[in-house]
Amino acid sequence: MFNFIASHFVKNYKDYEDPDVRKNLISMSGIFTMAINILLFLIKIIIGVFSNSVSVISDAFNNLSDVMSNLIAIIGSILSGRPADYEHPFGHGRYETISSFIISLIIMFLGFEMIKTSILNMIKGEISEISNIAILILIFSLLFKIYIYRLNEKLYNKLKSTINEAVAIDARNDLFATISIIFAIIMQKFINFNFDALMGILVSFIVFKGGVELFLETLNTLLGKRVDDSVIEEISEIILKGDYVKGFHDLQIHSYGHGVMIGSVDVEIAGDITVEIGHRSVNNIEKEIKNKTGVKLTIHMDPTYNINKVEKTF
């Protein structure tokens, strides 16, 4: 369904490296997912209120939090797609991470509120009753969540967007939550204990835990966590095979959002070659690194040794 819509509204929608295509796909996935979550919220809140089921109501508000998360994701994708300007020379890609960070705060807040509500209902001891039709509707809602999870996981793998990653994680948590609720409703028919409220607490912890994991991941990114070791290794290999290069130190790489990584390094190069030859050597290294890894690296030449004879290789 999503591919059908994307093919009609996004030109060259399979060109995932195109910044405009990437931005449009992220925004469209947010709108598409938000529409599904609004539908699920309305269905579950009606079921929960009429059956007085705290676990179903908790799951409904979890879907409502997803709606707000989707809205933030849409706004974040639009802002992150803005081009670089005078005040932001490295672009606005970190808006994606900021959006995911805000989503994590919303998830944790609602998870905490759901925990309080579930505990209060357990203390009251009220046992809810829910029809078999309502159970079937909840099972049907699982299909939507499975679709949302698979869609955003697929988009994350292709677009490397932290926004899609956040939505996929949230959808995965929702799957576990809804399955727990269905189990609670079925078990409640056979026991005279507020099992529904107990499962409501479990669902709330699942939601809260997902928010904490997303919070820590996005916080580390905003604080400037280390780039993948595979990128470091590839850059190291390219540097060391450069002409007249014996080693390097102080390699630093900073990420400013998807596709924008900038860094610097001190390269140990021969000190008795001409400036022109040295410049050509590091320039070739910089170009190869940019082409193969996407990192824009600035190299500082550090003359640390001499050679007896310089062969002209350029």
Could you name the key traits of this structure?
single chain; 314 residues; mainly alpha; 3-stranded mixed beta sheet; 3 strands; 68% helix; disordered C terminus
User: Which outline best applies?
Assistant: elongated
Q: How can the largest sheet be summarized?
A: 3 strands, mixed
Per DSSP, the total helix count is 9
Number of strands: 3
Q: Describe the strand arrangement of the main beta sheet, using strand numbers.
A: 1-2-3
- Unreliable stretches: 310-314
| End-to-end gap | 55 Å
Estimated radius of gyration: 26 Å
Beta-strand portion reads: 5-15%
Please estimate the helix content.
Answer: 55-70%
Describe this structure in words.
It contains nine helices and three strands. Strands 1-2-3 form a three-stranded mixed sheet, covered by helices on one side. It has helices at residues 2-9, 19-51, 54-80, 95-124, 132-159, 162-188, 195-223, 229-240, 275-293; strands at residues 245-255, 261-270, 295-305. It has 314 residues and is mainly alpha-helical. Helix 2 runs antiparallel to helix 5 and helix 4 (95-124) packs antiparallel against helix 7.
